[in-house]
Amino acid sequence: AILYPRAYSRTLPYNWKHQHDVAQAGANAILSACGVKYRTGSAFSFLKLAVGGSSIDYAHDVEKVPYALVMEIASKGFHAPEPNIARICEETWIGIRAMVIQLAVSPVVSFTRSKTAI
After folding, report:
1. What is the mean pLDDT of residues 72-92?
2. Do residues 94 and 30 make contact, with C-beta atoms less than 8 angstroms apart?
3. What strands lie across the sheet with 70-71, from one edge to the other?
4. Which segments constitute the Peptidase M14 domain (predicted)?
């Protein structure tokens, strides 16, 4: 899955459509190149309940990062079997590359500076 905010609320962020387009570009590229289907949507829409403390919500709502996405890799559980790692890395890279390209052609979004130094 490729998820965007919010996990704590069913209310979508102001730029949810742009984030959805970016996530969908990644999912489409992975499907086309690898035949693996990644679903896209808000974290809340996947969980069907509100969950606090997600990193994408913090990045988007607190630090004002306009595009906050998370990829859940195609594996069972948190530990991919060793024979699958190379394939998972390849499909993940294909998705990330497609999302970066989509960001490059997306409408200009103001990237504000974080209040905290990184």
Report:
1. 85
2. yes
3. 40-42, 2-4, 70-71
4. 1-103
Indicate the angle between helix axes 16-34 and 85-105, nearest 10 degrees: 140
Strand bridging mode 2-4 / 40-42: parallel
Domain boundaries, the chain: 2-105
Task: Give the active site residues.
Answer: 72
> Per DSSP, which regions of 1-118 are E strands?
2-4, 40-42, 70-71
Query: What does pTM read for this prediction?
Result: 0.84
Torsion, CA 29, CA 45, CA 19, CA 3, rounded to 10 = -60
40-53 pLDDT, tens per residue? 999 998 877 777 77
Count Cβ atoms within 10 A of the Cβ of residue 81 and give its class: 0-12 exposed, 13-18 middle, 19 or more buried. exposed
Alpha-carbon span 14 to 37, nearest angstrom = 27
Structure tokens at 7: 């996990």
